[in-house]
Amino acid sequence: MKCPYCQAGTGEGALVCASCGRDIAVPATLIAERDDLLRKRQELRDELKRARDEAEAFMRRRHSR
For 53, which DSSP code? Predict the structure, then answer.
């Protein structure tokens, strides 16, 4: 793992960078929130794709009359 601030290599699971001394621990709540947001983003993308597919099908039916 690399320190996000100084890019020095750090030990796996380190809470503080040994090189620059900055806090590099990511709270579990932030990780959970990020995962939840990624899941919601994917759900919205899927919903948007379904809506686009439905709109295209509607337009095809409308033009075939």
Answer: H
Alpha carbon 4 to its chain's center: 18
Q: Are 39 and 50 contacting, i.e. CB atoms less than 8 angstroms apart?
A: no
**Residues 17-34, mean pLDDT to the nearest whole number:** 85
CA distance linking residue 32 with residue 26, whole number of Å: 10
Residue 4 one-letter amino acid:
P
Residue 60's alpha-carbon distances to 23, 46, 47, 53, 63, in angstroms, are 57, 21, 20, 11, 5
Q: Is 9 helix (H, G, I), strand (E, B) or coil?
A: strand
Confidence at 31, pLDDT banded by 50, 70, 90: confident
How many whole angstroms separate alpha carbon 48 and alpha carbon 35? 20
